[in-house]
Write a structure and sequence with these properties.
This protein is α+β, with helices and mostly antiparallel strands. It contains 11 helices and 6 strands. Helix content is about 55%, strand content about 10%.
Length: about 270
């Protein structure tokens, strides 16, 4: 049975996330593992070709080749996930295909520090013991996920992170669901400026609003929109004429779409 976690934001908005289970996380891990293996094979082929090429000139670069190979292996093991999680907002290729995302406790976007911690500790979750060499085939991580009320592996506990199922996203379909924008939101996008002043945390809050507004009554949409939009419009040095309260919701959707497009988050 899917588990969920409910978070109350600083703006007193209640957000409920569906937690990613063992099956979806394992499949995402396998996809990422296959991609990492392909990167490894390509890197080793390039190194072999390089070693053969300079060997034609009588140069023995075997020590350098081994050194570079160790660096490549290290980067594939530990940097792969962090690079993608930073570039794609908490998603690796495997998670993106399965509609999963890593966030911090409290619903905040993942940071480089949190990503690095959870991915370095993947070695512990896999159960690799260097002396004597022993591999427990992911048993520590699986036990932790099964026993955790929030499906957390050991790396998630250390980093303070959660893996969630993205709202409106289904496996192998990472585009946002087709929803009607409010009447003037598309038009307002051209009037936006200083969009770079919006922080990732503020964008996350705006996107949550845009995704969930259809489930609220009009008066609730309008009241929350005003509360969220006023400080953002001031931060962007915009002072639009507001004829009715729901116009704030139109501005929020315009901000969300423009930010998503500029940061390739659609």
């Amino acid at each position: 049975m899917p588990r969920s976690v409910t978070i109350v934001t600083p703006e007193n908005i209640t957000v409920t996330y569906q937690l990613a289970g063992v099956a979806s996380r394992f499949l995402a891990f396998i996809i990422d593992l296959l991609i990492q293996f392909a990167i490894y094979l390509a890197a080793m082929l390039c190194l072999r070709l390089f070693n053969s090429s300079i060997g034609l000139f009588g140069v023995n670069a075997s020590d350098l080749t081994y050194f570079v190979a160790y660096i490549v292996i290290f980067l594939i093991m530990f940097a792969y996930a962090s690079v993608f999680e930073m570039a794609w907002g908490g998603r690796t290729p495997g998670k993106r295909l399965l509609g999963l995302r890593v966030i911090r406790d409290g619903g905040y976007p993942i940071t480089l520090t949190a990503s690095a911690i959870r991915n370095v500790l993947r070695v512990v979750d896999i159960g690799y013991l260097p002396a004597p060499p022993l591999l427990l085939f992911g048993l520590p991580g699986l036990v932790s996920i099964f026993l955790s009320p929030q499906y957390k592996r050991l790396g998630d506990y250390a980093a303070g992170t959660l893996v969630i199922v993205e709202s409106g996203v289904s496996p192998f379909n990472v585009m946002r669901p087709a929803t009607d924008m409010l009447p003037r939101s598309a038009e307002l996008q051209s009037q936006l400026r200083n969009i770079d002043r919006i922080s990732p945390e503020e964008y996350t809050m705006v996107r949550r609003y845009a995704e969930r507004r259809a489930t609220w009554e009009i008066r609730v949409q309008a009241a929350l929109a005003e509360r969220l939009a006023r400080p953002l419009l001031a931060k962007m040095e915009l002072n639009p004429e507001i004829a009715y309260q729901l116009q704030y919701a139109e501005w929020l959707e315009a901000i969300e779409r423009r930010y998503s497009e500029e940061n390739e988050l659609l």
